[in-house]
Amino acid sequence: METMIVIENLNKHFKSGDAIFKVLKNINLQINAGECIVLKGVSGSGKTTLLSIMGGLDRPSSGKVLVEGESISKLPDLHISHFRARKIGMIFQHFNLFDHLTAAENVMIPLIPAGLDMNEVNHKVEASLKLANISHKAKSPAGRLSGGEKQRVAIARALASDPAIILCDEPTANLDRNNSLKFIDILSQLHEMGKTIVVATHDPLFDTLPFESRIIPMEDGSLVSTVSEDVLEQG
Amino acid sequence: MKNSPFIHFLMLEFFKERKKHIGVISISLVILFLLSSVLFISSSIRHSLNQTLAWEPDFVVQRIQGGQKVNAPTEWIDDLLEVHGISKITSRVYGRYFFKSKEKSFLIVGVDFMDEQSHKALRMMMDETDLKEFLKGNNMLVGEGVSSHLKAHFYPNGYTFLTPKGAFKKVQLFKVLPKKSNLISNDMIIVPIELAREILGMGEDEVSDIAFNVPNDDEWENVADKISAFYYDLRVVTKEDIKKAYENLYNYKGGIFLILFLIVIVTFVLILYQRYSMVYSSERRHIGLLRALGWSIRDVLKLKFFETMMIVLIAFVLGVALAYLYVFVLGAPLLAEIFLGGANLHNSVILVPVLDFGILSSIFLIYAIPFISAVLIPTWKIAVTDPKEAML
After folding, report:
1. What is the pTM of this model?
2. What would the pLDDT profile of B145-165 be if each residue is shown by its tens digit?
3. Which of A77, A117, A138, B71 has its CA at 20 to 30 Å from residue B146's CA atom?
4. SS3 sequence, B166-207?
5. A38, A216 Cβ separation under 8 angstroms
6. What DSSP element (H or E) covers B142?
7. Surface of A (90-129) touching B: CB under 8 A
């Protein structure tokens, strides 16, 4: 299987006065294309930071992140922005929608720097909303949507530029069980479409996903072990 | 451009967040309106002054004794006639006449209507006065301020002057000078030269000052130096000196306003700067999210630049248009008083519309550059940080 993401000797630390806080410690990980990875751990274990570095939202203190063989850790702004726009679909814990814009307008945002014309943008927005099953709310202001609807708009936005990688940061933290299960359904569809998915969560619902996935527990900035769910099922 | 998603998004952001912009546009509008009004008034006054002073002679010779101006002897005219390069020598008779309580005074100007040069200099103010009729009796032409003052004190048709010899001299109001010359003629009374001498108590052999022209500009300095050496108490005043004296007065007032506006603009810009650079502001999260969704620093700056330009242009066009109406249509009530106030008599000047590119670009630059910088610098600072940090 083709390798999508390779993380080598990754460290991340923050300085606060004289103190240094090590958030990620010597992370090594390989993620294949089409694979679903669940980073599990309590708050402060470093999973969100790892996800941010994979998505090019943050830079490592040392080590490398290679996406499709290209190191993204030291890319200049224009390149890392293009990388985020084309390769990454990001789903945030708090949805991070622009409340004053409609669902469709929110989905449009990642497509604006791509240099497409308005017809192409509209076409992609419609397709993404349909995929996330939220087309009926296309013209509703994001601020008036329920939590589950906001999450689906966030998914549509993440899918708008048809990225190869979907990164989800605590995607069900603000959803009830019913909406969380709906989210997992959509994730299942994305998995079927061949998207590479990385989820950072502490939600037990992700322990038993209805599709093949790899759970990677994190603790105190380190990967504890790598366990494949199908191996667990066999075992 | 119409089909551009960027323009579409720019418009969406601008109009859907209009509540956020209304406050900024309103404050900008007030600042630009006041700034434009002041610049329009001062440039209009300067324009009118230049036009009025164009009729003034190149030089005026005065007599200074004991540090103050006194009447000059007419024999000085003969001395001037001998200087090569001088033309159109005119003796002038004028002086201040204090009205009753001495709170107000008129400028009495005696005109030798037989002297073409003297007549020409005042032609603009006298408009189409019937000179023949005017010279038949003791008549006067008065500025609008004088006319209003006389009417207010129950002298609608004329005034009886008290001469230094204690005699009364009744003079009929022949005509009010046109309003367009108010800047100069507001407190002026034009009478025949003999009548002026009588009212002001001046002898036949003395004049207030002597005016003349020097057609060759290159000779101005030489002529001024030569004449200055004639008498120890002779002072030569150039047209430029008079112009500068007027301009300094209005520039001084305009300058005070300009400093006040600069203070207001700096304060406003600092508030804006603070708003955009606030660590936990929604602007910061907004920028961070755009960056997280694949926007480059350049894309973010482009959006903020055009958004700010729209605010600046809306405020600029509205501010300047309102100021134009206020100054040139309504006559700048209140504000014009500050510029023209402090004068001897109430002066209602017609502000001639003057709208040159220099004024407009000055207004735009004084306002737009600090405004745009106050938005773009903090935006850039946020945009260059990692999106994750900006979104916190």
Report:
1. 0.73
2. 888 888 888 878 888 888 888
3. B71
4. CCEEEEEEEEECCHHHHHHHCCEEEEEHHHHHHHHCCCCCEE
5. yes
6. strand B139-142
7. 90, 96, 98, 100-101, 105, 108-114, 116-119, 121
